[in-house]
Please model this.
Amino acid sequence: MNYKLRKLINVNSYLFVFGIPLTMIFSLILLSKSSVFQQYPSKFSLAIILDLLLVVPFVYFLLIRKKAIPKFTIITSFIIGMVVSSFILPLEEQEVLSLIKSVAIPVIELIILFFVITKTRKIIKNYKLENNINIDFYDAMSLAVKQVVPAKVASVLTTEIAVIYYCFISWKKRVLQENEFSYHDKSTSISVILGFILVILIETFTVHHLLSKWNIVVAWAFTFLSVYTCLQMIALLKSLSKRPIFIDEQNQQIILRYGIFSEAIIPFSQIKNIRVFEKDISEDTTVTVFSPLGKLEGVNMLIETHQELEFKSFYGFKKKYTSLVFFVDEKYQFVTKMNERS
Model:
């Protein structure tokens, strides 16, 4: 069978798999707009909810069970059903739907979290067996999340799970391995982050008191956001020691990390120059600061690249650079090690 024919068969197969559930959903949307629905809204609303949340996902499961499509996407079809139901049904007919949401949403969140953690541990185990390297837990979790949700939301979900993991789960001390370098022991990063946490806590109590006199809902919303920001800072603080800089000789690249907030992967072939940086950052506007704290903490290392590259920042945002400055605790050992690779 030639390549074009196989490709055509695959395309038709996927059109069949996704076309049937979409046709069912579209039919239910048309039903919700019909005159028949207007006569018996309660009965038809219940039927539409059951079809969208149970029948459509079940049919989708039957269609994909022998295909390479991840079975986890059944949850996606269930979520789509909830969203569609919320839009097409009258508010007064959504009592059953609201009850299902109150139970299903926390369960779905727990399933996703369990799947990601399980998948992450499996990925780490496979990397150790196949490549004989210790893959970073955050990177493994990022790979696992991309198997669950679309790439555009993977970075956000990875960050949210990382905050939970590093705040409440990860307590084991990490010992530096060969070619790994810390960047938090001799820098001001820990004191700056602790300062941020202290300021946020003080501000939270003060602003909550002031806002509560105007609107209690807004006051508690602000407090929740402030507390969550503190958790993010705590997760960042704990992740600094667990995500060291790594000179990856096997893959001919250097991996710069700043906890769960920043990561840059720089191929050796792209490095034009690497040296100790002794200037004040404010005196050199041509360099890009790797740390998300910017100029609040010092730097002592500079990498210049042949071409403009980009590194990943918080929540998946990208920053471009040709001259990147950062901090390494053992700066001279780091430069020596990088020079030895050539």
